[in-house]
Amino acid sequence: AMVIQKHNKNGAAAAGGGQTRSDALLGMIQYGADKIFDNQSSTITDDDIDKILSASQSDTAKLQAEWHDSTKKQFNELSLEFNYQQYEGQDYTQKRKEKQARLNEERFNLLAKMNDEMQ
After folding, report:
1. Is 7 exposed, middle or buried (0-12, 13-18, 19+ CB in 10 A)?
2. Which candidate, 83, 66, 84, places its Cα nearest to that of 75?
3. Pick from 18-22, 50-54, 75-79, 85-89: least confident
4. How far is CA 50 from CA 33, 43, 44, 59, 74, in A?
5. Confidence class of residue 8 from pLDDT cuts 50, 70 and 90?
6. Helix (H), strand (E) at residue 56
7. Position 21 pLDDT exceeds 50
8. Closest Cα partner for 25 from 55, 4, 52?
9. Which end of the chain has a smaller Cβ tally under 10 Å, C or N?
10. Per-residue pLDDT tens for 70-115?
11. Res 45: pLDDT
12. Rounded to the nearest 10 degrees, how much is the dihedral formed by the CA atoms of 70, 74, 80, 83?
């Protein structure tokens, strides 16, 4: 945690605001890994890293099992697709299409009128 906080103060601020969230996270991890592996006086051993990875894999398996039990689906079947045009049981897809068609018609009429006035 201290390594990430130090990176946030030093590296991330210097990197600028154009960095995506995943790029920033990857930068923090790489910064921390560099500090761990480059530091000869580090007390972190390969066994410590193996324990961390093992615990992470165990936690992932547990979360996937909980998700499977609650959804009765395999984790690789996860789909984040949904109809964002539907709200409280009403589908607004057609209304959106009608509004878009009306706006396009108004835009074309305005362009035609402007074109006529310029001639």
Report:
1. buried
2. 66
3. 75-79
4. 14, 14, 11, 14, 27
5. low
6. helix 46-71
7. yes
8. 4
9. C
10. 877 776 666 666 667 777 777 788 888 899 999 999 999 999 999 8
11. 78
12. -70
Output the CA torsion 10→12→18→23 (10° steps). Answer: 150
d(CA 92, CA 84): 9
Residue from 65, 5, 60 nearest 35 by CA = 5
For residues 38-76, b (16+ Cβ closer than 10 Å) or e, as one string? eeeeeeeeeeeeeeeeeeeeeeeeeeeeeeeeeeeeeee
Check residue 88 and report its DSSP letter: T
The number of residues making up the chain comes to: 119
Tell which residue, 49, 15, 55, has the closest CA to residue 32. 49
Q: How confident is the model at residue 114, as a pLDDT?
A: 92
Residue 3's pLDDT is 47
